[in-house]
Amino acid sequence: PSFTDKISIPTIPTKEEDRQDKPPTLQEVCTRSIKTNEEQESS
Fold first, then answer.
1. Helix spans in 1-43 (H)
2. Which of 16, 18, 28, 39 is a Cys-bridge partner for 24, taking CB atoms 3.0 to 4.6 Å apart?
3. How far, in Å, CA of 17 to CA of 43, rounded?
């Protein structure tokens, strides 16, 4: 339930602001590893 709530939160602006004073959320970690995997596949 709480994970679904985090997914519905607006992403990029809030994420960039929160990162300054909070540890990464589970969503950020998942998004970051997905982007990393895509970059590895394209290169």
1. 2-8, 12-21, 26-42
2. 28
3. 30
**Rounded distance, CA 43 to CA 28, Å?**
23
Four-CA torsion 16, 41, 7, 25, nearest 10 degrees = -50
Which residue reads 């895509």 in tokens? 38
Burial level of 4, CB count in 10 A (0-12/13-18/19+)?
Answer: exposed
The residue ranges of the chain whose pLDDT is under 50 are none
> Are the beta carbons of 6 and 26 closer than 8 angstroms?
yes
Residue type, 2: S
